[in-house]
Amino acid sequence: MGHRHIALSGAAILPLAGMGLTAWFDVAHGAPMDMGMAELVATSIGVAVTAGLGWRILRSRPGHTVGRILLVMSYVGVLTSFFEVYAFNGFVNPGRGLPLQTAADVASSASWVTAYAALTALAFFFPDGRLPSPAWRPFVYASTVAFTGAWLAVTLQPGRQDEPFQHMLNPVGQAWLAGPGQAIVAVFMVGMLVTMAVAAGAVAERYSASSGVERLQLKWLAFSVGLVPVALGTCYLGGWLFHSDAAASVALQSALVLVPASVGVAVLRYRLYDIDRIMNRTAVYFCVTVALGAVYITASLVVGVVAGGGSALSAAIATLLTVVAFRPVRATLQDAVDRQFSRANYEGRRMVSAFVDDLRHGQSDPGEVEAVLARALDCPTLRVWLWVPSTGTYVSTGGTEIGLDRAAVDAMTRVDLGGAHHALVVLPPDGVVEADRASSVLGEARLALQVAALRAEVIVQSSVAAEARVRLVEATFEERRRLERDLHDGAQQRLVYLGITLRRLQKSLPAQARILEPALDQAVQQVSAALADLRSIARGAVPSRLSKGLGAALQDLAATAPLPVHLDLSAEPAPASVEAVAYFIACEAVTNAVKHASANALTVATLREPTGLRLRVSDDGIGGAEFAAGRGLAGLRSRVEANGGVIDLLSPPGAGTVLEVTLPCE
Amino acid sequence: MRVVVADDAVLLREGLAALLEDHGLDVAARVGNPDALLAAVAEHEPHLAIIDIRMPPTFTDEGLLAAVEIRKRHPATAVLVLSQHVEIGDALAMVASGGGFGYLLKDRVLDVDDFLDAVRRVATGGSALDPEIVQALVASRRPRAPALDALSARELEVLGLMAEGQTNAGIASRLWVAERTVEAHVRAILMKLDLPESDSHHRRVLAVLRYFEAMRRDGEVRRL
Fold this sequence. Notes:
The structure holds two protein chains of two kinds. By secondary structure, chain A is α+β, with helices and mostly antiparallel strands. Helix content of chain A is 66%, strand content 9%. In chain A, a hairpin with a 2-residue loop joins strand 7 and strand 8. The radius of gyration of chain A is 47 Å and the shape is elongated. Chain B is 54% helix and 15% strand. Chain B has helices at 10-22, 34-44, 62-73, 88-96, 112-123, 131-139, 146-149, 153-163, 168-175, 179-192, 201-217, and strands spanning 2-6, 26-31, 48-52, 78-83, 101-105, 127-129, 220-223. The model of chain B is unreliable at 219-224 (pLDDT under 50).
């Protein structure tokens, strides 16, 4: 490996050295300094880039054909430059008598063929260094033959050389190529063109068969190759407008740099640079530049006509209009380009922004954001995990919690808004959804994700609060039960025993002490009264009848009420603590109705629902009841709400009263 | 009369037993849980078992269940259940099911004469229902009991005392009227309430109790 490494590095440095040599040669022989030097520098850069990339590719992927092609291209570039400089110097300083100057010129004249050959080779072997299929091999051979023939045909063309060597004749020119030989030349030229077309076909076939990663790489190649004519066109235009050839030359040189550069990127670093976005933005900004240029020119002309040509005012106004027009023009063109070329991107963004609009108008549910994103990115396995800050966990859009470890989190796409983290989006592995499309669609969806995350937070908080309340209600109930039991086991027993003791004492009084009997009687009466008090307290804490269920307790209530009470009871039980609360509420409601409603009869109904217990107390009295502060019903409402319930009162004057209470329970 | 006392509170158990013995009853056993109670009844075959409604293990209604069990297994043994609370439904159901059942509040023990009267009544196959419970039943207006409204105040009083399980003599002494008068009232009541006539006073009492029980169940619609 070490030897190869050194050999490879040597092979890469050689062209650079060659360029250095060429430059020295040029300077040493006093070549003119104008365009020549600039051209040399540009070519050097091109050679350096090509060689460097070829070296880089071959270093990480030894034997990669594309790397080799690039290296060869750099050599061709060096040799061509050297021969050109050599020939040119000979021409400029004829007295120097440089040998083989004609030969050098001839050798460099066919360099354009080699350039096209390299490009064709690239087309055949890009991006993985192998042919699309073995079936293409004959075409590669044919191409080699065609290009070799074409190169020979050009090199051996008899007759005069091109400018500035018109005075020279091709020393190796073959006379027979002039007349009928032209046909052979033509054949090779055509063959060259055909093989180039075939190579283009190879690229097309690769593209249509490709997906994901390879498609991205091919897009890089397409992009860079497409840049060449654009750059050329622009620069010729610039040259025509501004009367300068320098621009055209620079453009050509930079194109020559860009093509290998993009090839290198495509092979080595396609993941880092998002080609779709680059192509998209390039197209957009190019059009924007053209459009704004048109705006500027038009504005200048118009203002010039109105205010007098050439004034500073026209320039100022034109500039102002251009600046103002920038954002809308860019937005419009971005949309147009997206609709045209990144249809999926455009559609996805449109779907998401429609969803966000519905959200703003309260017409859709934030929980749907996952489904909408999955549709927008055409990715059914997309998942959204919402961040709940209060519990420090992630939940799905359906509300189920999920545990995610650090590694999993890092692999997902983070969505933040305004500095706060809101969600993680799980996308399938690289390549299935283009990064540009994913990021622009997700960017559009940030608001929706924030809303969904906030709602998840609220839901989590409410359920936490609900659980706390249930625990509180149950704790209260337990405490009351304990109180009742303590009363029963403790005080009540003692009092009964006290009473019994007094009675026995009474019985055992001797005749003389009979006078004490009334006093003892009174004492026992007091004990009985105390027992009655305790009994009512115990009933207030937890009526013992409740142990048989709410229905039984309500029956007792109905049995002892001063008014007739109809009962309409559900047989299904609710948790004991909830039934206790319902019982007390029913007692209070019945007492209230008896006291204030002037009714003939009451009805108490219970209904067990999946999420709660409903209690309805209605009467046929005078109605007109309301939750006035300090009155019984207000206290009832406080009690209901403290237990997490809902209370409804319907009491039209003269038409009776219906009080409905719903207490939550599972 | 032989009696068995069952109460899980030691103080009460002993106090009650002593009170009964003071008045000449023979307390054959004092127990503190349902199993021991059943065993004691089986062993001593008392005339009456006085049972606290709350006993281990759950302290809800073990005493009641034991009482029902005793009536089933030993029909010769009557039961008198003592409770700290007014539980209308259980009391009524039990006492209306037949003779030899009594349901009193524990405080009733302190009205010694009434208590002993109830003890004797139940032991001889009659019934006893705590006056406080009867008061609550009679005083309330039931939705579909217009018949009760047809009774006069005096008749209501008599009805109440009947429900307590009192004999005609007992009722007469309470109301300071002649037994004959009581008899007349009773017949009127039975007719107005459409209850069957019977020679056995005891059966009349049961009829009245069943009437109250039915009345209590009336007016309810049970929904699933």
